[in-house]
User: Fold this.
Amino acid sequence: MCCWTKKSVYIFVTPVRLWYWHPVANIDTACDHATMMKVFGAPWPLLQTAIDPKKKAGEEKLRVAVSGLADEDSDVRVNWDEESGQTIVAGRDERHLDIIVYRLLHEWDLALNIGAPQVAHRETITYACEQDYTHKRQFAGQGQFARVKILFEPNGHNPEFAFVSRVPDGTFPGDYAAGVEKGVRTILVSGPYAGFPMIGIKATLVDAAYHDTDSSASTFEIAGRACFKEAAPRLGVQLLEPIMRVEVVTPQDYARDIVGDLKGRRGKIENQETSSMRVIINATVPLANMFKLEDALRSYSKGQAQVSVRYAKYAPLPPATRGLPPPVGAYV
Assistant:
């Protein structure tokens, strides 16, 4: 652990598109050459934490502070959990979250309860299923009617949501089809497995029926949501975790310990190259097992290793590691 001195060290706050410099702390000179972990290429914030003020009087100040940070830094995402009253803050990596919390504590002088960082898991489907659903009811004397038949299937290796309508043009209003798409999109924000956002899904509107007076875009939005909900038990919903591609450059003397550490984090060593008394180690490691990796590498290598981290993919979470806490929020 470094001690505090007067020498300033700067770290990168948002390393994906543009480097921002921010003076975080005065760190001991011995750390000047320590490992600096840089994370590249993540599609959305990969870590999130729950925070709440220790005093009720600080609630509005916290809301203003986190809103300002989100406006200032596009890599900060904020959500308010109405049930728990907590503020959910998401960032690109562990260091990014540390900086966000540091600024709230010291720049805004807030007294906060801070939860442990949680990985932003995702959910997906593994099977295809065609579901027929009819929404029909009376409300305040007005009828509501919408019938949809939707094919839900995995979207290949594409993590995005795709919607296609195969209903012939001219037989079904376009705004009704848009309502179906909106309904499916909204329910995918919170998946049925553990409440995490869903990715990699394709929805094809195969057939639909409407009533001249009892149908509207909003009724088809309701039908789209309900159709997915009914299909979900047969879609093989699966929990996913982010996998990171890690490259460590270290003197040869420390390579063995570093490889052992990476393997202990469920890492898979892809290759090792030796050049000029240094070893380049390439591995993939689940983000959930990368907490304090920077500190560990600094300790093993006496501050001489360098590490870069790049988002690789989302992959199925092994059954043995599924003892997850409830999700604290959803980000899309």
